[in-house]
Write a structure and sequence with these properties.
2 copies of one chain form a homodimer. The first copy, chain A, is an alpha/beta fold. Helices cover 44% and strands 15% of the residues of chain A. Chain A has helices at 9-28, 35-42, 46-54, 68-79, 94-101, 120-125, 138-144, 156-168, 196-212; strands spanning 32-33, 66-67, 85-90, 110-117, 132-134, 149-152, 173-176, 190-193. Chain A has a 6-stranded parallel sheet with strand order 5-4-3-6-7-8, sandwiched between helices. In chain A, strand 4, helix 6 (120-125) and strand 5 (132-134) form a beta-alpha-beta unit. In chain A, helix 1 crosses helix 3, helix 1 (9-28) runs antiparallel to helix 4 and helix 2 (35-42) crosses helix 3 (46-54). Chains A and B meet through helix 1, helix 2, helix 5, strand 8 and helix 9 of A and helix 1, helix 2, helix 5, strand 8 and helix 9 of B. The structure holds a DNA duplex.
Chain lengths: 227, 227
DNA sequence: GCGTGTGAACTGGTTCACAGCG
DNA sequence: CGCTGTGAACCAGTTCACACGC
């Protein structure tokens, strides 16, 4: 019935991708899908797809692949993706504003309920669909509004300090876009770092190897693990 | 002298992070650093840091850690991060505009030289420091301007099609922000997918496990692999 | 026969222990 | 005595092969 063991981290990642893919497939009206088809769309082997899905228990019809709707539901239940979490955006620079205005989180289990910035000037001139608050109210508002998740888009210098305020406010998870690795004391808070600049470095490095290995070689490339 | 074997993917990622960290340390005026200090800042063990750095050959002074400047240079040389690549932003929606205006790529080995969008209206009303072009000129401009890298910020539906145009234009690497996995035929092109919505799902799943495992347990969390 | 479910082998990345130099 | 460099043990995830149901 319920998942016996917590799955490995890569498995969680891939199941989340499969969940998203199922959404897209449903949107297109596709009702059934095979492990190899999923693998192709996700750039992984059919083996791992089956292993991952199998962690959920038996889901597919043996000769005929998986029912897309069922698969999606089962993954959603097992990973706790069905609920809607309350999110906020902290730091309303270029990236923060973009995320704040992004429609589509709503469809994916998140409601953005607040924005924060240290620059009160910016708060006054910005138009937004949700309430904006000055940074010093961060902790209180997070607690009062029962915010689950923060999208942290502040400069590197203030990232650690801001994260600590979020934790004090009782946040449950943080998606960190600042180019530092946060160190959060509380084990009750989940943190994930998405460092775009570092992604560019990785890309540059891979391209560099690519060039020097005379058009042959392969080093997996891909790999969407952790931003 | 030169790297014998291509390092594993996780090693490349971490070395890129170390490279970035060295930059920050130099900025602070720190001249020497130990593997354990690096490990702490990056959220990994000192063992892996040493193993990774050791792939470069001997770098540190045995009793006294690493010289930050030397370390940075060695990593830069080995991974090909010293050169400056020419980049463009494709798709000037919220995220694309934010990236286009982001200062700081310049400091990290990238020059943004062009922007593209299918909406000509948007091109006219936008102010930007670099030339903007309509989407149908993508392939030609990429070739003419010798653009190495594309930051792909178009909607999911057009991502695959756009990527193919980029490849036709002779692009070397693509950082894809669209929530699909690109399938690129040419082995000469490096692709990396950064799916923010999927990161949110992963975060949600991890938080869910976190809750159900009664404040104990640990599932590595962290892990910045690939976004 | 196609395609899932799954135990067994395998690969390679991480962890550890310790040698050696400042 | 601290901290790097590195070979050996360990372990986890992936790959493979095959049984079984439609």
């Amino acid at each position: 019935m319920e998942p016996q063991t917590t799955p490995s981290f890569p498995t969680v990642q891939r199941l989340c991708s499969v969940y998203g893919l199922c959404g897209a497939l449903l949107h297109d009206g596709t009702e059934r899908v095979s492990s190899s088809a999923i693998g192709q769309r996700l750039g992984v082997s059919a083996f791992v797809v089956r292993k991952d899905i199998n962690w959920l228990g038996e889901v597919g019809q043996v000769g005929a692949g998986y029912d897309v709707a069922t698969l999606r539901t089962r993954i959603g239940e097992a990973l706790g993706l069905e609920r809607t979490l309350r999110a906020c955006v902290v730091g309303l620079g270029k990236l923060g504003s973009a995320l704040l205005q992004h429609k589509g989180f709503a469809l994916e289990g998140y409601t953005v309920v607040a924005g924060f910035d240290a620059n009160t000037n910016r708060l006054e001139t910005m138009r937004a669909a949700v309430p904006l608050y000055p940074a010093h109210e961060l902790q209180d508002v997070v607690r009062r509004e029962r915010i689950d998740t923060a999208l942290l888009c502040v400069p590197a210098e203030s990232a650690q300090r801001t994260a600590e305020a979020l934790v004090q406010g009782g946040i449950r998870s943080i998606l960190n876009f600042a180019p530092v690795v946060l160190s959060v004391a509380s084990a009750a808070v989940v943190v994930r770092d998405v460092d775009i600049v570092n992604e560019l470095r990785v890309l540059s490095a891979l391209a560099s190897f690519q060039e020097s290995s005379g058009s042959g070689e392969h080093l997996d490339k891909r790999n969407t693990k952790g931003a």
